[in-house]
Structures are given as structure tokens and as C-alpha cells.
């Protein structure tokens, strides 16, 4: 408690954490911020700013508590780490976003629990994140970041509580982690490139999604994405690519989904280029997605589908999906009867065992 922090879950420890960060960040050669075990530390919204003079490590052994929603009148984050090279976050502790009071209301600004902005070379290991008000982790403008053995938990009915969101970032590795939320376990926004996702248990939630894409002009392309050796349990989607039905042009390419187990998953394999949450009315019918999806491979995907349509490709009429490959797919319908495939505006090929029978 070198900086006067009090682990009583009541006292605001923002100043103490900020002071500890400043000392570690300005220490030549690197520094460590220790959040001790056996403590629950309330922290108000806080920006931890770089660049630092060396590496910086946050050893999270205790529990950080977010304030209740009335403290978020402004700002889009609870904790934000900006412009840092060589960042390490580890420990046996947790982040508690205390989101349950914010989820029912749309009138409150709901922040990301931890935002990583402009981070180069980082490793986040072993920590847990609970009940974020919005996303649990969000990365923007980051490079060479690894999440390893991270646990993310929120109820299935908690809105927009994505586990890990990526945008405008490259060299991101997410591995050996358990994620269950009310939205996407992992979501990849515009500018996600060279992404490797391995050994994830996903569920509950909306699966692992690329998108939604095409909502804004001049979005960066998404490419070189691999999702492999992972399990989806009771999710509303398995692996999904989604673009807005009325969209600006961009591209998704060089994507591989490999060796995935689907257990009672509603849409195990889905491309949705008519994405429009809520009601778009006639706009959805008249407008077509301008996002090109190409060179996507699905291999060794098995388990059970909770819907009869286990493979669903709804691609754009204007820029049809190209180079879609299915190999060794086994997704029986767990409700009895046969599973089927749906293909619209898609060009590709199928190899090996195909259940449902391929429509490519």
C-alpha cells in the first residue's frame, strides 16, 4: 500500500494507482505496479498514459472494482492504457466492471473495462474480467499483443459485453482462454490483420465474429486471420463474418477456420452480408453490401447444430464471396432430421466429408 490505497471496496484509489503508474513509467529501465492480493480496490475512470522509460508490468493479484454507472457521465472507458511499449499485465487477480446496474438502461454511457490504445509488444496473462458494462477488452492501433490464459465472464443476457474487441491492430494472439459473455467472445473490426486465435472456449455468447464491417467510409481491410483448435458451447453463432447490408467498400481475405468443435451452436458457419440489427426497413432490401469477402477456408469443423441450416452463406449480390473452401465438415442437427446448407452469391469448392451436403 505504498501509495495509500485502501482495499475496502469503498475508497477511491484512482490517485494511488495513477501515482504508482507514474513512478513505474518514469523509472529508467522499467517498473512494476503491484495491486496486492486480498484486496478489493475501487478505481474511478483512469487513463494510464505512456510512453514510459522502459518496460512496465502491472501485477494484478487483487481485485479492481469499477464504480457504479452514475460515475460514467463522460468517457468511453474505465481503465485505458495508452501509447506504451513493452507492457505486461499478469497475476491471479481480476477486473470487476460491475455492469449489472448499467445493462438495463440505454441512457447511461457504458464504458469498456480496459482499453489498450497504441500499445506495442504486450502480454496479458492469467487475469480475469467480470461483468463489463460494455466490452471487456478493446484494442485499437496495437501491435504484437498476446492474451494468454485469460478468463472473461458476463451473463448471456448482458448486452454488448464482447470479450475482446480488435480494431486497426496487427500481430494479435489470443490463446488458451475461456470467454463467455452476452455478445461476441472475440470480435474483429476494421483493420484487424495477422490475427491468431487458438484454444479458446467460447460460450455463452455470439461466437467469434469478423465484423460488422462496411458501416463507415474508408474502413481498413481485414486479412490474415486464423481461428483454430477451439470449442463453442451453446453460442448463437460459431464463426461469423458480418457486413452491413448498406455498406461502404472494403475487403476481408485470407481467413482460416480450422479444427473447431461446435456443441449445440445455432449458426455454426455463417457469412451474413445482410447484417442490420434492429429494423432497416426498405433500406435493407434496396442496398447491397460492398464488402468483398474472399479466400476463406473452413476445415475440420464438427459437432452439432442447433438449427437445420448449419452452413449459411448470404453473400453480396454486388461483390459475391469468392474462394470459399469447405473441407471435412460434420455438423448434424441435434433436433432430429437433416442439416442443410444455404448459398447465395458465393463461389467456392468443397472437399472431403460434407454434412450438411455442400451447396458450393
UniProtKB/TrEMBL annotation:
SMART domains: PbH1
Name under which the protein is recorded: Exopolygalacturonase
Location(s), subcellular: Secreted, Cell wall
InterPro entries: Glyco_hydro_28, PbH1, Pectin_lyas_fold, Pectin_lyase_fold/virulence
GO molecular function: polygalacturonase activity
Family designation: Belongs to the glycosyl hydrolase 28 family.
GO BP of this protein: carbohydrate metabolic process; cell wall organization
Catalytic residues (positions): 206
Source organism (scientific name): Cucumis sativus (Cucumber)
PANTHER family in the record: PTHR31375
Keywords annotated in UniProt: Cell wall, Cell wall biogenesis/degradation, Glycosidase, Hydrolase, Secreted
Amino acid at each position: 500500500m505504498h501509495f495509500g490505497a485502501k482495499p475496502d471496496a469503498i475508497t477511491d484509489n484512482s490517485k494511488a494507482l495513477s501515482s504508482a503508474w507514474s513512478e513505474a513509467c518514469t523509472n529508467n529501465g522499467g517498473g512494476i505496479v503491484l495491486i496486492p492480493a486480498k484486496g478489493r480496490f475501487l478505481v474511478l475512470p483512469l487513463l494510464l498514459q505512456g510512453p514510459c522509460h522502459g518496460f512496465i508490468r502491472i501485477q494484478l493479484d487483487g481485485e479492481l472494482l469499477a464504480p457504479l454507472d452514475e460515475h460514467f457521465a463522460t468517457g468511453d472507458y474505465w481503465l485505458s492504457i495508452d501509447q506504451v511499449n513493452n507492457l505486461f499485465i499478469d497475476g491471479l487477480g481480476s477486473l470487476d466492471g460491475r455492469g449489472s446496474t448499467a445493462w438495463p438502461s440505454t441512457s447511461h454511457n457504458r464504458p469498456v473495462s480496459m482499453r489498450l490504445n497504441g500499445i506495442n509488444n504486450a502480454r496479458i496473462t492469467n487475469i480475469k474480467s467480470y461483468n463489463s458494462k460494455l466490452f471487456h477488452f478493446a484494442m485499437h492501433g496495437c501491435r504484437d499483443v498476446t492474451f494468454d490464459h485469460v478468463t472473461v465472464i458476463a451473463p448471456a443476457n448482458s448486452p454488448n459485453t464482447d470479450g475482446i474487441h480488435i480494431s486497426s491492430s496487427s500481430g494479435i494472439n489470443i490463446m488458451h482462454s475461456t470467454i463467455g459473455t452476452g455478445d461476441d467472445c472475440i470480435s474483429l473490426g476494421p483493420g484487424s490483420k495477422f490475427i491468431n486465435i487458438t484454444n479458446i472456449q467460447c460460450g455463452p455468447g455470439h461466437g467469434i465474429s469478423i465484423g460488422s464491417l462496411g458501416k463507415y467510409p474508408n474502413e481498413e481491410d481485414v486479412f490474415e486471420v486464423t481461428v483454430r483448435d477451439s470449442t463453442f458451447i451453446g453460442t448463437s453463432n460459431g464463426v461469423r463474418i458480418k457486413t452491413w447490408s448498406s455498406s461502404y467498400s472494403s475487403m476481408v481475405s485470407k481467413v482460416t477456420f480450422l479444427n473447431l468443435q461446435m456443441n449445440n451452436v445455432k449458426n455454426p458457419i455463417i457469412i451474413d452480408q445482410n447484417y442490420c440489427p434492429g429494423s432497416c426497413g426498405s433500406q435493407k432490401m434496396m442496398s447491397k453490401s460492398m464488402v468483398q469477402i474472399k479466400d476463406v477456408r473452413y476445415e475440420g469443423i464438427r459437432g452439432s447444430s442447433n438449427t437445420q441450416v448449419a452452413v449459411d452463406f448470404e453473400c453480396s449480390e454486388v461483390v459475391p464471396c469468392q474462394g470459399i473452401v469447405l473441407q471435412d465438415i460434420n455438423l448434424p442437427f441435434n433436433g432430429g432430421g437433416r442439416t442443410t446448407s444455404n448459398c447465395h452469391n458465393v463461389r467456392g469448392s468443397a472437399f472431403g466429408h460434407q454434412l450438411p451436403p455442400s451447396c458450393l
